[in-house]
Every structure is written in structure tokens, then in C-alpha cells.
Amino acid sequence: MNIDYIILIPIIPFVVFLLLGVFHKRIKPAVSGYIGVFGLLASTILSFYAVYQYFFVYGKVNEIYQTFSEKSVWMNFTETLHIDMGILIDPISVMMLVVVSVVSLMVHIYSRGYMKGDEGYTKFFAFLGLFTFSMYGLVLATNLFQIYIFWELVGVSSYLLIGYYYTKTSAIAAAKKAFIVTRFADFGFLIGIMIIGYYTGTFDFETLNNPEGSAILNWAATSFMGLSVITWALILIFIGGAGKSAMFPFHIWLPDAMEGPTPVSALIHAATMVVAGVFLVARLFPMFYFVEDGFALNIVAYVGAFSALFAAIIAITQTDIKRVLAFSTMSQLGYMILALGVSGYEAHEGVGYMASMFHLFTHAMFKALLFLGAGSVIHAVHSNYLKDMGGLRKYMPVTNITFLIAALAIAGVPPFAGFWSKDEILVAAFEHNKLIYCVALFVAGLTAFYMFRLYFGIFWGKDTAYMHKPKESPLSMTFPLIILALLSIVGGFIPFSEFVTADKSGFQAHLNYPLAAIAITVGIIGVALAWVFYKKENGLSDIYAKAFGPLYKWAIDKFYFDEIYLFITKKVLFKRVSAPIAKFDKKVVDGTMEGIGNKTVVFSNKIKGMQSGKVQDYGFAFVAGVVVIALVFIYLWTN
Amino acid sequence: MDILSLFIIVPIITILVLVFTKNLKQARVVSMVGSSVQLLMAINLVFAYFKERAVNSSIMVFTKDIVWFEPFNIHYTIGVDGVSVALLLLTAIVVLAGVFISWKMCDLPKEFFISLIVLSIGVYGFFISLDLFTMFVFFEIAVIPMYLLIGIWGSGPKEYSAMKLTLMLMGASAILLVGILGIYFNSDADGGALTFNILEIAQVNIPIESQKLFFPLTFIGFAVIGALFPFHTWSPDGHASAPTAVSMLHAGVLMKLGGYGVFRVAMYLLPLGAIDWSWVFIILSVIGVVYGAFSAIKQTDLKYINAYSSVSHLGLVLFALLMLNKTAWNGAILQSLSHGFMTALFFALIGMIYGRTHTRDIGKLGGLLKVIPFISVIYVIAGLASLGLPGFSGFVAEMNIFVGAFQEDNMFMRVATILSVSVIVITAVYILRVVGIMLMGPIKKEAYLKLEKVTWYERFGILLLLIPIVGIGVAPLWLSDMILESLDPFIKGLL
Amino acid sequence: MIEGITIYEILTLTTIIFFIGVYGFLTRTNLISMLISVELILNASVVNFVIINKYLYPDVLQGVFFSIFIIAVAAAETALAISIIINLYRQISSVEVKDTEIMKY
Amino acid sequence: MDFSSFLLMRHEIILLAITLLLLVAEVSIANNKKNSIVHLAIFLFGIHTIVGFLKMDYGDLFGGMFHTNELIKFFKSVLNIGVLILLLQSGDWIEEKILHQQRGTEFFMLLFSSLLGMYFMISAGDFLMFYLGLELSTLPVAALAAYDITKRISSESGIKLILSAALASGVSLFGISILYATTGSIYFIEISEIITSNNLTILGFVLFFAGLGFKISLVPFHFWTADVYEGAPISIAAYLSVISKGAAVFILMILLFTVLKPLMAIWENIIYVIAIITMFIGNLFALRQQNMKRFLAFSSIAQAGFILLGMITGNQLGIATVVYFVLIYVFSNLAAFGVVQAISLQTGKENMKDYEGLYRTNPNLSLVMMLALFSLAGIPPVAGFFGKFFLFTAAASKGYYLLVFLAVVNVTISLYYYLLVVRAMFLRKNENAIPYFKSKIYMKLGLLITAVGILVIGLYSPLYNYIHELSKSFLN
């Protein structure tokens, strides 16, 4: 299969970035918007062409989806270790191409309306271009180091975009936080990469992932503290993934990241960048699965499950709609992660893997839709807070409908996309681990509940008095909503298991009716509860809030994780570590050097009395010197 | 005149011309022309090197050997390999940028440029000489002008800083002298004649005990100028007081002499001593890496921040050099280069900001991104480069260092490596702190609203430094391979 | 050759003279008397030369000649010293050594 | 022996002739045009210097009392150059300050006779000649130290010098007498054959060594130095610090390396110790000096300490490096003193404070001063660096690494106070700095020669190679 043209997919947005970035003074905003959109349109078309080529024309050879790659050396470490740059085409990367292209394109279009009149308009599109480029590079990466490189690049573009309103202190803080927390996770990632590189002698995915390959077969060669070093490496790498995907305990950056413009939240912090962690685990799935009988994989599963639950609980209590969505994102990511965690490898065993990717796909659509919808709401009412909203369905019908669709999708109500993927995940969890299944089920219910709390809170409920009447957003914003809404409806009917599976040989996935039924009922219950609580203005919510008391309070304050982090950084690292070090440097280290100099001068002042100016003292010194030397060398130093 | 000696001749001619210049205009033009010629020569040298290397596989190419002090067998021996070529290029670029940055040097311009170019002579000579004596001579020539440059044109407690810097560096070079003499008098261990020639000494098996004795002297002698903890304290004060161009040259080029010297002399000529002592200095350098980064977090003066980050970055260089494997050494050289460009760029930008706002206290600055966008954006880029973002030279260098260091398979090295890897986080912290406080956020003073926009010569100087950073970062292969293949003969001495 | 007196006694004597001279040089407060003490030192060595020549190496007269030269030089030295002292006296009307201490440290 | 063999004493004879000629001129020239004496003296001495270089044959005179060879001739030429520069630098001073006292000629005559004494001293073949040379070189300098009869400090320095010198020569005479007692000869050749290391010899050697240590001003025989330098006229201070020290170093080295070679086991330890304390004491005292002359005095003490590093080797390398260093030291120190001379001649200021901001008013003087100081501090590319480096190499060749280490520590300390002067001249701004002035031609010439010398001697290696060859031929 000729995959050269795929190179263009990432290149185009990069060119756009350079174009807009370098000439951002000279280009008129309107023009730059078009440049961005059409650049991405091109990439999107190419991606779809790639999908067609891969899945339906060349991809499948005797029932197995092949892996195509083209790479060239970028830098040599040793004779064996080197960083390659190239593109790797296999089911998940193609799938990701689609996700990134579609969402990014939508967001581009949307932003033309949303960012209108902003002075940094061109800059914004430049950054979007940079991000899209990096994301493409990430999903197409052929080896660990390439993925790490683009990993960092998406990180920095997210930093730039969160800090887009750079005069707002909160935005700066949020950007910094996001970057540093993920950077801290990447610290683990990098060490993991180095361990892999040292013990397997390669960074290349194809070599690493080959089940018969040396990397997987001799995982037990070296062990450290009772675990195979490879396992350690995988855990460390997963830490990196957890950082990007805002898994517990690295989740704290994601809510704050909502300081960025809403389209950014939709693109980066809902649909694409945050799933990088999931993608990373999926990318290394064979290693995770085979090495030490999936020890690392279990950790992945539990982290995912816990994060899903944790985030869902917090999401219930938040009042900033973007934060609610942020936590729901985190929760859904947890879902995907746990799905990977409970997955097997061969054929139907690998349903979890398939489901995870499937959910990634659908979630990208409806979560982007949710964010864009929220964006359009915020655009209308100029506030992020539920208390300023209500009854908007009259004013902005399109947003209302699309938002509802998205909500239903995420709540797992058939036939919307979310239902299918979520159902597969539950199946996988059920077959693998009952505990996780229960958690997942509970989370599904919670999801439905908070999502509809949000929906009712925004579009129904009491009619808030708006100073100026909110109106429906322009077409440039509603159009993407509609497109995404359609995708959220039909997305579920894609026979995903045919295309994306762990062992790359498709299988027939059947709906597991009892489980599906349970899932649906749970979903419905959630929706219903939300209906009871929030459709009409009534005190119920407050009563129950009181009933939960402290738990509720903690949930609102996100279980005080920000505070813990703040304590560790500000109080411990800054006050107790770096401040003392700075002082130590001035006082002790520098002080010693100073001291040597000063002592010399002081000493020279002490001995100045020797030069008394009395010629007789000189004479005495002279004679004494002679005598002493004579005595010493005659009696003591005789050799 | 051979291609290398020109690197000494041309500056001397420049100086001779400078002596007859009348005012700032002539002086800066002359020195600009002179250093541009240098840059062209350096670029030409790179290509010439590749051409020569294709046909000539000896360790050093373009070698030239003139007897100087026959009784001591002191020669003027010059020659280059990939490493020195790269560093020469770095020097040429930074010097030219420095000239551009000090375009408006009003006080005693002639003298300023002369001292600047004398300094560069020292550096060029150091990088091309293969004779310990010549090397040492150039080393001191490079160091001593700093005293005048900081003392006359500096700011703040300049006399104090200048004196401190000069004394510590000269003290170090004095220790180094003992080490060199030690090497010299052991260079006949195999019955040959005494010699200062590095390549010849490398063939000699110097007895282990004298290696053990002289390695620390040589290493410390060089490493002090490479800001080895705890001998780094000259650097923050020195940088803070020095005028912009001098900080650039000093941090960008002069501090590289340390790493280069360690690599070319200490490690190459005294391998057994190196192996014997490495653990001590590894500990010191790792401390330097982490410690420098941490103390950078708490600084409020831009130049201090940068100085401490230099301590941290160059700590990595020494750390890598002690790792005794090719990858790490490659990383060390690359780190020297990239830090050279980055920190020079930083100081240039700091100088511009200071020249406009008259303060270097980040607490007083804010929102510059709005008023002087070009400078601020470049500052952000430099910052990202310095925290090792892919696509910039810093990443390439650090990855080489880390991966190389990770090849050393024992617990001590592993721990040291992981500690030094942790710097990628700490660096991010202090860089983003500065960016957040100084460039972003609301504008602190009314006065900042009407700051002078960036001028053409500033723009030029900046781009001069930015291009290589990005160039190395995006396409490292040619450079890293050029260095790698030059490292083979050196690594062989250790194994 | 003096009957009954060995070289040791004489050398002891000269050594004593030498150290008397040194003592005088270090303790006298008057420049002139310091000068005299110096003369003692010189004379000690003069006697030394002569005696050594006479007792140990009587065949060649190196020592004797040497001593003659020493005497001459000593005279010149004294003359010069005296003149300087006089010059000093002109200015500070004192030949006390304690008045020659304005340059110190 | 025929008269032609007297040509072995060419230097001495010519110099004596010049001295007498000046005496004649003194009486014959009328008072109002005495300044021609200055020109005459400088001119004649210039001739003498040039002639000194001409080729001559070598050998012994007076049964070995007087001995000369190429190295000695070379060293005499070094002294000549030094004195010539000194004359150039002090010519203006004589013309302006001294002539009207009708005492111009004495200066030259005393100076020349002292130099004559040094000639005899360094080419002495026995202790008698050596002693005569020593005294002849010392006494006139004492007179010159007290030369400025109007100044009290001048007389004070004179008396201090003469008394200390007398004591020193007395002590060393006593030492010589002991050596004579043990060896039975005063001829170097014979002594070197007979002498053996026993307590009496050691005692004699130490006493004798003290006498020369006094002239080289080694600790603890150095105390006179600073006071005398400060009080004496600058030219004389320069003369003491350069010429007489140089000559003493040379003869001491000759004696140690040839005559007293059998005692090497002893004297290398003595020198080891004394070198260390000399360097440290010299530097530590120089640190806080404000008066430039005292400052240079202590710096020259420290330099003497460095010289000992070359002397400790006791081999040909030592000779070569020491002679080379002395040559460089002559130029460097004379340059420094020259600048001090020029300034104090114009303004009468001699303190470091007065030098502040000098560069902005008198750039050339400051540059020469900086060169000189860098050369003294041993900073490349000026000559001093090479001198020091080779001295250290010599010491290291004998494995005295610890000594070298202490020496380099001292180099760093010395750098500090040399930089203090540079700081005053270059870094400091001072509105009432010494105003710009033009020196007379002699002074300019004198400074120019030194500056060129400082720049060239180091880089121009054939010079060192030549000295190296001489030292080789000297030892065998």
C-alpha cells in the first residue's frame, strides 16, 4: 500500500501554522480563518481517503490488517538505538486520523464564528494548526521516541492554547499547571522509554509489539524489586499516559484547562489530546498484555475504573458547565482506560480493546459536540455558571437539540453512539472482572444523571432574566453542531469490531442483550432522577445535597486534590527546598569562596606588624633567621 | 595561511584595524565586518571539514605543526575534528551576535570591541590547539579580558563580580597548570620524548598512580569554568554584572571551554584516573544539575535565573562527559552547543528588556507580550528550547545525555541518571514561572505601554542565534553524526 | 703561631666578638654605636681569616689578603655610613635609631 | 699573560672608562650646560651596551679570580640593557630635579661603579673577588638611596640600607671564613673539589647564603626592601629591585650549581622552605600596600620567591629558566617603575588612589602599566607568563609538584593585587584624575623599549632557545 501521501496529512496543518505564525501581522483575520479551515479540510479528505484505502482496499491481507510503515533515521544514539521519524499505518492510527481530522475541522469552522473579533484571531488559528500537526504526528508515530516528541508538542500547544487569554492570571496559572503536571508525568514516560530502549534495544513499535518478538518473549530476563524491568517500564509509560489523559492522580490540570477558549477545550481537552494516553496504551497493547501476564494491564484497569468513578462523583456537584464537562471527560477516559485494562488479545477476547477504541471514537464526537454546544451557550449568555442559565431552549433551538442528542449519546441511551460503545465496554468488564463491571455500571448511571442535570439546568428549569436576550449562534457555529450531532447518532452503527481489534483480525461483535438491558435501565434511571431533580425548579437537589453533607462538600471541592498539590509544590518544594537552596548558595557556598579571600586580607593585616620600620628588628629577624635555618639544617633536617 | 590559523589571524587584524578607529560607528562596523568574516570562515570550515573527512580518516584534520619552544618540545599544533568544528561555528555565531547586540556601546567603544575580540581569539585558539601549552595559553587569554569587560562596562557591583570571576577562573587555571605539567612529565612513560602534544600523549600509557593524582587537578581546573558545583559561584554574580554581549559570550562560549577541556584533556589523556575518580565528580555534577535548577526557581533577577539554569545545564555536560560512553559524550557536546546558543539568546533578550524597562526584577515586569511582542515571543521560544522541547536543540542534546547515561548499567549511575532526568520538570517550572510573570499577565507600569520596538540589529542578532537552535532541533542528524564519528578515537582510549 | 694557644680558643673568641657585635647591633639606640658593632662583626671575620690561614693552611696567604681587603672595605663602608648619618642629622638633628622609623608596614 | 687577555674584562674596562670620562666631563663642563652630561652618559652607556653584545673570547684572569664565559657575558648584557632603560627613564628626573643641585654626575658615576661591582661579582672566580664585587655593588647604591638629600625618608632609607647591608656582609663574611676554614681555599674551583657536607660547612653555607639572600631580599632577609624602596629615589628603587637583585640571583645560582653542588642535598631543602615563605610573605604584604613603590617592593619579593623555583632544580634547565625569567623580570619591573617614575615626576603622586581613572586621561601610560602588571602576574600572551611557566616546569621536572602548587596559589593571590592597580587605572572613574601630560623623549623611549620587550620576549622563542644553549654550554 502506497502511504506516501499520508505524510501530507500532518504537513498541511504545519504549513498553515508557519504561514499564520510568521505573517500573523500581515494576514487579515478573515483570510487566516479560511486558510486554517481549508488546510484542515484537505487533511480531512486525505484522512478519509486513507481510511478507504486501508480498510476497504489494501489493508486486509488474509484476514489480518497489515501494518505499513515508512521511516527514516532522525538521530542516532548508539549502533542499535536511534530515533526514527516516519508514519505507521494500522487500524488504530487510521481510526485516530479520522477522529482528529473530523473534530479538528469542526472546531476550525466553529472557531471562525466563536473567535470573531478577537485580536489574536490569526494567532489562534496558527496554534490550532500547530496542535493538529502534533496530534497527527502523535497518532502516526512509528516508535516510542517519535510519540514522545509529538507528545511534548501537543503538550506545549495545549499550554499555548490554554494560556490564550494571556492577560488573565487564572488562564496563565491553568496553562502552567497543565504543562507542569503533564510534564511531571512525562518524566515517568521518558524513563520508561529509556528502560525499554536499554533492555530491548529498540524503540520501534513493530518490533516491540510483535508477540513472538524478543521484547515480549524475554520480558523476564531482568527483574527489579520482584517485577520485570519491562513491567516497570510499562507502568512508567502508563504514568505518562495517565498524565495526558488526566487519570487520577494527575487529573487536576484538566478542570483548570477549561480557562482556554471553548473550541480549544472541545478539540484538545475533550476529543483528541486527552485520549493520547488511551491511544498510547492501545499502541503498546501487546506488550501490556503479554509481559508478566498483564500485570501492568491490571493496574491500568483499576486506575481507569477509579478515575471514572471519582470524576463522575465530582461532576455531579460542579456548577461551572465546562467543568462538569471536563470531569465527565475524565470519567469517560477512565472508561476507555478500564476497557483496555480488562481486554484480552485473541479474537473475541479482545472485545475490551475494540470497545475502548470504539468509545474513544464515539466519545470524541459527542463530547466535542457537548463542548461546542456549551460554547455556543456561553457565547450567548456570557457566563459559565449554571445559575446564570435556564430555559434557553426557547432562545437557541439548534443548540438545544444537538446538546440533547449528545447528552443522550453519552448517557448510553440507544440508538445513540454512546450506547453501543459503552455496552461493549460493560460486556468486556463483565467477562473479565465483576467488581470493575459494577463500578462501570454505577458510573454509567451517574453519567446519565449529571449530564441531564446539566441539560435541564441549561435549557429548562427556571427562566433566568437575561439583560439582553440570548439568541442562536451564527451558522458557522451551529453547522459543526449539526454535523457532530449526526455523527453522534449514526456513529454507533459502525461495525467497529470488524476493523479495530487487538490482534488486528476482525470479529463479529453481538449485542449482549441482558447486559445491554441493564445498562439501558441504569441510564434511564439516571436521566429520570435528573428529570425529577432539575426539570422544574424545586428544592429537592438542595435537600439531598444536605443529606450527603460532607461528602457533597468534598465533591464540590474536588476532594481537595488541588490543595494537596498546592501544598506539595508551594509549601514543600518552593519554601522548604528551593528557597533554602538559594540561601545556602548565597551564604555557604559563595560564603566559603568569599571567606577564603577575606581571610587572606585579614591575615595580611594581622602580620603587618612584622614590618615595624625598626632597622634593629630587621637585623634581629635577619640573624634569627640565619640561626634558625642553621640549627634546623644542622640538627633536624640532616639527610 | 592554513584554514585554521586564519581563525587567529583575522581577529588580530581586526584588532589592529580597530586600534585606529575613531568612534563608535567605525569601531562597530569594523568589528562587525571582522566577525562576519569569521562566521563565513567557520561555515566554510564545516563544508571543508566534510570534504576532508571523506578522504582523511585521521583523528584530526587540517593539522599543522610548528615548533615553538624547541627545548621543551612545545609546538604550535592545531587541528580540528567534528567537535571543534561545531564549537568554532558556535563561537563565530555568538561573537557576531554579540557585536550586533552591543551596537550602541557608548562608553569606550573601541576598547570594548577590542577586548571582546581578544576574548574570541582565546576561544578560537583553545578550540583549535592540540598542544597543551598552546591550549593553556589561549585558555588564559580567553579568561583575562573578562575582568576589563565586566569591570569597565558592567553594571551593579561590577568591580566585585569582575574580581571574583577573574580570581576564581585564574585560580582554577593555575590548578590546571599543575595538572598539565603533571601530564607533560609523564608523557615519556613509554620512553618517548616529553611532549605537550595531546595526540601523542594519548598514545602513552601514563602510570595509573600519576593519572589518579593529576586527573582531579585537570578536571577541576577545567570544570570550574564549566560551573562545576561548588565552584560555580562566580557565574551568577559575573553574569549579573556583565554587559549583555559579554554575558552572551561568556555563558555562550567561554563556559564551554570547561566541558571541551575536560573532554579533550582530562578524559582523553587520563582515562584511568577518570574511571577512578568519576564517582566523585558525578555526584558533584548531579548536585549541580538539580541544585542549579532549584535555586533558579527562587531567583527574581532574570540574569540570576539564567545563570543558575546555566549551572544546571552545564552540570549536565560534565555529568555526561563522566559517563564514558559515546552517546552521552555526543549529548555533552550537543548540550554545549545548544546551551551556547540558547543562553546567548536569553542574555541578548534580557539585555534588550533591561535596556527598555531598566529593570531585571521579574516582579516589576509584566505583560510584555503585549508591548514588545517580538522580543517576548522569542523569549518564550528560547524558554521552550531551554526546557527541552522537541524541535529545539535542547531536546536533542538532553535525550542523548539521558539515553547515554542510561547505558551505564549499575545502581549508582541509574540513580544519578534519574535524578538528572528530573531536571526536565524543574526547568519547566522556573521557565514557565518567568514567562507567566514577566511576559503574560497585566501590564505592570504605564511606562511599559510605549517601549521602543525591536531594532533591526537586535532582530539580526536574535535570528542569528535562533536559526541554529531550531536547525539542530529539527534536523540533528548531520551534526550528531559529525560529532559521533569524531568521538570514536576518544572513547577507545577509555575502553 | 702563638705558643700555648690553640685555634679553638681563638675561634671561640672571634665567635664571641661576632655575637657581641650582633648584640650591639640589635640593642644600641645610637646609629653610630650600631655602626661600631658592625665593625666588631667584620673584625671577627677578619681575625678568623688570619687565624685560619695561620693555623690550618700556613703555606698560602689567601686568608691574610682577604682580611686586608675586608679592613679596607669596612673603612669605606663606615665612611659612607657616617656621611649618611650626618646627612640625616642635618635634617632631624638626631642620630637615634628610633627616629628612623617613619617608613613602616 | 699578555695584555690582550685583559680584553676578557672588556665590559669592566669600558664601563670604568666611561665612569672616568664622566668625571672628566664633570670638571670640564660649565655648570649651566651640565645637562649635556646626562645626554653624554646615556649615549656612552648605549654604546657600551651595544659593544657588550659584540663577540669576545672567554677564559680566566688573575689565576682564576676573574672568570668569564658566554652566559656571563650574556647576563652582563642583560644588566646593561636594564641599566640603559633605567637611565632613559631617569634622565628627565636628573635634568629637572637634580642638576640644579650640581650633583648630576655623581648619580651616573655611583650607578656605574655599582654596576661595575656587579660585573666583578658575577664573573668572580673566588670569594675575594666575589666579596669585593658585592661590596662595590652595594655601597654606591646605599649612597644613591640617600641621594635625595632634601628628603628625610631618603636618608632614612639610605641608613637602613647601609646598616642592613653591613650586617649582611658581615654575616656572610663570617660564613665565608668558615668555608675557608673547612676547605682551605677561597677559589671556587678548588672549593668545589674539596667541599663536603658536614655541620661546619652547612653553618658556613647558611651564613654565606644569608648575605646573598639579603640582596635578593628573600624572607627573612627581606625587611629592608620595602622601606628602602619607598625612601629611595624611584630610579634607585628600580635599580635595587631589578639590577642588583638580578645580579645576586645569577651569582647565587652559579655558586649553588657549581661550587656548592656537593651540598645540594642541604640547599635544595633550604630553598624549598625559603621559596614558600618568601612567596607567601611577599604576596601577603603586597596585598594592602597603597604606595606604589612599597607595592612593587613586596611584589618583587614575591617574584624572588618564584625565582627560587627555578633555582631548586640545580640543573641546566634551572639556569636557563632563571636567566630567562630574570630577563623578562627586568623588562616588566622596569616598565612598572618607569610608569611610577613618569607620574611621580609630573605630579609627585605615588599612591594607588592617585591612579584612579588614569586610563581615561593617560591611556598609553596605563596600557604600559597594565602590560607590566600582567607580565608580573604571569598572564599570557605577555612575557611574564612564559617566564613563570618555564620556572614551574623546571621545578616540576624535579617532581616538586607541591611546591609548584603553592606557587600557583601565590600566582592567584598576586593576580589579585596586580588587578587592584588595573582596577584603579581602568575601572574607576575619577573627575580629579591625573590630567593628561606628555613625557620627555627619554622616558617615552624607556617605556617603549620595555613595552616592546614585554610583548616580544615571550612569544619570540629563539631567544629562550639561545639562553638554553648557553646554559648547556655553561655546565660542561
UniProtKB/TrEMBL annotation, chain A:
Residues in domain NADH-Ubiquinone oxidoreductase (complex I) chain 5 N-terminal? Answer: 74-125
TM segments? Answer: 6-23, 35-55, 85-109, 121-139, 145-166, 178-199, 219-243, 264-289, 295-317, 324-345, 357-381, 401-422, 434-456, 477-496, 516-534, 618-637
Taking every annotated instance into account, which residue ranges of this chain make up the domain NADH:quinone oxidoreductase/Mrp antiporter transmembrane? 141-446
Q: Which GO terms describe its molecular function?
A: NADH dehydrogenase (ubiquinone) activity; NADH dehydrogenase activity
UniProt-annotated location(s)? Endomembrane system; Membrane
List UniProt keywords, sorted A-Z: Membrane, Transmembrane, Transmembrane helix
One of the GO biological process terms: electron transport coupled proton transport
- GO annotation, cellular component aspect: endomembrane system; membrane
Membrane topology note: Multi-pass membrane protein
Q: What is this protein called?
A: NADH-quinone oxidoreductase subunit L
Organism expressing this protein natively: Seonamhaeicola sediminis
From TrEMBL, chain B:
Indicate how the chain sits in the lipid bilayer. Multi-pass membrane protein
Q: Which cell locations does it reside in? A: Endomembrane system; Membrane
Q: Which InterPro entries match?
A: NADH_Q_OxRdtase_chainM/4, NADH_UbQ_OxRdtase, ND/Mrp_TM
Keyword Translocase on this protein? Answer: no
- GO cellular component: a single term: endomembrane system
Q: Where is the NADH:quinone oxidoreductase/Mrp antiporter transmembrane domain?
A: 129-419
- Looking at the UniProt entry, the stretches that span the membrane are 6-22, 29-50, 74-100, 112-130, 136-153, 165-185, 213-232, 253-271, 277-297, 304-324, 336-355, 367-392, 412-439, 460-479
Q: What are the protein's GO molecular function terms? A: NADH dehydrogenase (ubiquinone) activity; NADH dehydrogenase activity; ubiquinone binding
Q: Name one GO biological process term.
A: electron transport coupled proton transport
User: What Pfam families does the record point to?
Assistant: Proton_antipo_M
- Where is this protein chiefly located? membrane
- Keyword list, A-Z: Membrane, Transmembrane, Transmembrane helix
By sequence similarity, the record places it as follows: Belongs to the complex I subunit 4 family.
PANTHER family on file = NADH-UBIQUINONE OXIDOREDUCTASE CHAIN 4 (PTHR43507), PROTON-TRANSLOCATING NADH-QUINONE OXIDOREDUCTASE, CHAIN M (PTHR43507:SF4)
> This chain belongs to which protein, by name?
NADH-quinone oxidoreductase subunit M
Native source organism of the sequence? Seonamhaeicola sediminis
UniProtKB/TrEMBL annotation, chain C:
GO process annotations (BP): ATP synthesis coupled electron transport
Which residue ranges run through the membrane? 6-26, 31-52, 64-89
From which residue to which does any coiled coil extend?
A: none
Query: Which InterPro entries does the UniProt entry name for this protein?
Result: NADH_UbQ_OxRdtase_chain4L/K, NUOK/Mnh_C1-like
Predominant location of this chain?
membrane
Where does the UniProt annotation locate this protein? Answer: Cell membrane; Membrane
Uppermost EC category: translocase
Give the EC number(s) under which this enzyme is classified.
7.1.1.-
Topology of this chain in the membrane? Multi-pass membrane protein
Database matches in Gene3D superfamilies: 1.10.287.3510
Alphabetized, the UniProt keywords read: Cell membrane, Membrane, NAD, Oxidoreductase, Quinone, Translocase, Transmembrane, Transmembrane helix, Transport
Catalytic reactions on record? a quinone + NADH + 5 H(+)(in) = a quinol + NAD(+) + 4 H(+)(out)
Q: A GO molecular function for this record? A: NADH dehydrogenase (quinone) (non-electrogenic) activity
An annotated GO cellular component of this protein is: plasma membrane
What does the record give as the function of this protein?
A: NDH-1 shuttles electrons from NADH, via FMN and iron-sulfur (Fe-S) centers, to quinones in the respiratory chain. The immediate electron acceptor for the enzyme in this species is believed to be a menaquinone. Couples the redox reaction to proton translocation (for every two electrons transferred, four hydrogen ions are translocated across the cytoplasmic membrane), and thus conserves the redox energy in a proton gradient.
Q: How does it assemble?
A: NDH-1 is composed of 14 different subunits. Subunits NuoA, H, J, K, L, M, N constitute the membrane sector of the complex.
The entry's family comment says:
Belongs to the complex I subunit 4L family.
Protein name per UniProt = NADH-quinone oxidoreductase subunit K
In its UniProt entry, the species of origin is given as Seonamhaeicola sediminis
| Gene label | nuoK
TrEMBL record, chain D:
The EC number on file is: 7.1.1.-
InterPro entries per UniProt: NADH-Q_OxRdtase_suN/2, ND/Mrp_TM
Question: What family is it from?
Answer: Belongs to the complex I subunit 2 family.
Alphabetical GO CC annotations of the entry are: endomembrane system; plasma membrane
| Name of this chain's protein | NADH-quinone oxidoreductase subunit N
Which organism is this entry from? Seonamhaeicola sediminis
Q: Name one GO molecular function term.
A: NADH dehydrogenase (ubiquinone) activity
**What residues does the NADH:quinone oxidoreductase/Mrp antiporter transmembrane domain cover?**
124-413
PANTHER family, alphabetized = NADH DEHYDROGENASE
State if Transport is listed as a keyword.
Answer: yes
Q: Which UniProt keywords apply?
A: Cell membrane, Membrane, NAD, Quinone, Translocase, Transmembrane, Transmembrane helix, Transport
Q: Which residues cross the membrane?
A: 6-25, 37-54, 74-94, 106-122, 128-149, 161-182, 202-224, 236-260, 266-286, 295-313, 319-344, 365-387, 399-420, 441-463
Quaternary structure annotation from Swiss-Prot or TrEMBL: NDH-1 is composed of 14 different subunits. Subunits NuoA, H, J, K, L, M, N constitute the membrane sector of the complex.
